[in-house]
Amino acid sequence: MGRTSMEMGIRVEAEHLQSVTSRHANNSDFTMAAVDTEGKPVVLPPLRTDTDVAKRRSEDAKRRCTAQREAFAGEAWAQTDPTSGRPGCHVENAAGREAAQP
């Protein structure tokens, strides 16, 4: 998705324990930013898109990211990251420090 963030797809299945049948219950896309111990963004290795499915998912994630940036362009949290100069949002990491999420 980006250089310092990654989107993961989550699919939830509900299973009826007595009949051992399952069904799709929910799905979601979850984005995480990679940060070091000081809360600064860490560049991730490039995503391998060896299959058509992986390529489609990667392109879909990029479209979602672009749409979200455009939808929230006027919001303070979606402004350009002063450290990298890239558009993104600022989030609090686990250490309580502000980190840029591209």
UniProtKB/TrEMBL annotation:
One of its GO terms (molecular function) is long-chain fatty acyl-CoA hydrolase activity. Residues 49-63 have a biased composition (Basic and acidic residues). InterPro entries: Cytosol_ACT (IPR040170), HotDog_dom_sf (IPR029069). Residues 41-102 are annotated as: Disordered. GO terms for biological process: acyl-CoA metabolic process. GO terms for cellular component: cytosol. PANTHER family: ACYL COENZYME A THIOESTER HYDROLASE, PROTEIN VDLD. This is Uncharacterized protein.
